[in-house]
Amino acid sequence: MCDQTFMAITFGPCDNCSTTSPLMNIYIKNEPTNYCSFCVEMMACQGLLKGETLASLKNESESLKKKLEEERAKLHDVELHQVAEKIEVVSALSIKTRRVLKGHGNKVLCMDWCKDKRRLVSSSQDGKVIVWDGFTLNKEHAVPMPCTWVMACAYAPSGCAIACGGLDNKCSVYPLSLDKNENLAAKKKSVAMHTNYLSGCTFTNSDMQILTSSGDGTCALWDVESGQLLQSFHGHTADVLSLDLAPSETGNTFVSGGCDKKANVWDMRSGQNVQSFETHESDINCVKYYPSGDAFASASDDATCRLYDLRADREVAVYQKDSIIFGVSSLDFSLSGRLLFGGYNDYTINIWDVLKGNRVSMLFGHENRVSTVKVSPDGTSVCSASWDNTLRIWA
Amino acid sequence: MTINTLAKGVWHREQMSCFRKMEKVIVAMQDPDMGMKMRNQRLLITVIPHAMTGRDIIEWLIQKYIMSEEEAVHLGGLLVRYGYIYPLKEPRSLLLRLDESAYRFQTPYFWISTRWPASELDYAIYLAKKNIRKQGELMEYEKVSDESYELCSSDSAEIFRASKQRRKSDRIVLECQEQAYWLINRPPVGSLYSLYTLLCRLLYHLIFKRALGRNRVKSSICLESFVKHSEQYQNHDPIMQGCLPSNPWISDDTSHWTMNTDKVATPTRLRVERWSFSFMELLKDSMGKKEFMTYLEKEFSAENLCFWQACEDLRHGESSRIIEKVEEVYKQFLAPGAARWVNIDSKTMDKTLEGIRHPHRFVMDDAQMHIYFLMKKDSYPRYLKSDLYKNMLAKAIVPQETKKSVFPFMRRQRHSSPSPAQAVTQATEEDGQAKKAEQAGTNSAATS
């Protein structure tokens, strides 16, 4: 189980005994309360004395789970590929490598596009974070990080800063300066602090807030300026490997996927787990929303990508093939949401027809695992980062 | 895949492929021809067969895998830590010692991959047996919940009686094997484990109950919306349909981007069409938002959009400026007699005013939602039918598709663009200076 530290998130007077101490945020009879650790333990002992055993708790959970599956199945009247029969097949795609970005000294672990549609930031195992103009192949900034394995990086919406982190358990924000002589590393601002490695980070709708996911099993929302923790999200029982913000009108939710095979949807305001999906057979490496925000796809070590509909509250498609054995590390939708690009550990990128469920094309070129796949903001190209030390832009 | 450190005494999850690889090494070590030379070890007065010393293990590893001593010590240490080899003399310590202390291979029955996960009940049985044998001398870490202990006391007595039948050397070996196994696999200590499961149960039940009570939509309706979305956006998807005049990444021509910037004089047709797909699309495009604002000003309801924008600013802005922003919003939009008073229903207004007394980031959410849906249901559809929009659509340009050049191997010059970071620093300077810098930027790009 994760570190005990993840359970205590606030400090203050206990709701039960009024002593000031680190508090655990738990739900009693659907009401959120804050108890100090002593009161929680007292409550736990009482809970067990009422004749409950570990076995009975497990049975109860199993039966609830079964009941939920039955409810979900009731409204499932048609399959996605049946609905998609009437639409045309995707015409043959002629996608080639248009740019190869060389310059990293070791595996490239993550990348992110800038809103200007041509710049991107990438991070690598050698501890360097590079900002490129993808179009001209110019390296505009290079930031050396104090740790190796920089597993997450993100570009700020304004294009004026980047965020990155990894084994240092932190997420740091670097404002991008144009003065060539300026040392970017000196301007670093540490924002997020986790108790285990940082697996993913993204700016929310502005430069002022960052959402992070970590190997300690939690996600968290931070205020960049003060470094303050605004909200934390507990519910995963293993490392959280990926997260994605919902493109919705109200902009309040995000989805996270982790090593506990679960994909959870969270409400950013309250910190509550709103929906949960568990159909994968192995770790979920990446989650991405469908462009309309009504569904999301997940990529897993079990070599499948799955599509989950949020309104129907169930899995609606599985993208798999017997000949695909290796896990998927990353995925992204094309602009219309018709195509799904998946980066696989067998060095290829498979392109799936989201609606009909078949594989449309394969992209070869990388000489090692593909770690990240992202479509550019205007949908004109796809960028893939790989363990062969390069990034490729395909169009 | 993940890199994670294992917390002391507790497993996070299976790592089956690693175990299978370790087992391959172990099996190779026990190979009758190429494996390790084993001998009988004396343990006080009992002779234990098929044992080896730490030094033997290291030497075999060095020879077989052609590795350095440091690496062999490391690998050997891992084999001991995960229980594939256990020490005879001091079972409590899972270290590989390079002296004459004896080691033995763990029986496959006790391998982690075959015995995962270890239950508390099994552990209790083991401890009870040991208790009977050692007459109450259990180690400090060997604890288990009281009820598990009671459940198994009868079982363990039976097992103990049966084991007395075996030969002493076998018994010692079995005891060492079991002890080594449990040293690695013991479940988390009593009260903390039940505390954790109780909390998990509370969370799980809450999630399940909420999920059971959720309103679900029929699959046919949901899936139909995906088809509709894909059809609507198909022409806008450059990877599927190409883009006009050409995809910059393919042709090296950035016209597509220059034609779609925020401040372009005449937008493209596709862009204006997209504003009609949803209210969110209109607001996402800064030009669309500006057009909509112009329309609202004509209708004298521009304060709605301004209020919405101010609330967005509040929600996504710095924590330090929340109080200041809430006050501004109140003064401008909500106070009685305010300059740009917005029309919200009384219930929402009361709730918001109450909330303003203790301002926080989300205090305007209800009011903002109300105004957003008001614009979406009322102003937005009328804007789409208005002359303003129709004229914009009519004068929007449809770029000519660039014909593929006759000599495709002649690559165009790739021009750089001013960095977004540059745009911010220039905005703080005076206009004249900014224009000069911009010109210099494009000049240098042309020569690159």
TrEMBL record, chain B:
Keyword Membrane part of the UniProt annotation: no
Organism lineage: Eukaryota, Metazoa, Chordata, Craniata, Vertebrata
Biased composition (Polar residues): 416-427
Organism, scientific name: Myripristis murdjan (pinecone soldierfish)
Keywords from the UniProt entry: Signal transduction inhibitor
Pfam families: DEP, G-gamma, RGS, RGS_DHEX
Record-level GO cellular component terms: cytoplasm; neuron projection; plasma membrane
GO biological processes: G protein-coupled receptor signaling pathway; intracellular signal transduction; negative regulation of signal transduction; regulation of G protein-coupled receptor signaling pathway
Domain DEP: 32-107
Region (Disordered): 408-448
Name by which UniProt lists this protein: Regulator of G protein signaling 11
SUPFAM superfamilies (UniProt xref): Regulator of G-protein signaling, RGS (SSF48097), Transducin (heterotrimeric G protein), gamma chain (SSF48670), Winged helix' DNA-binding domain (SSF46785)
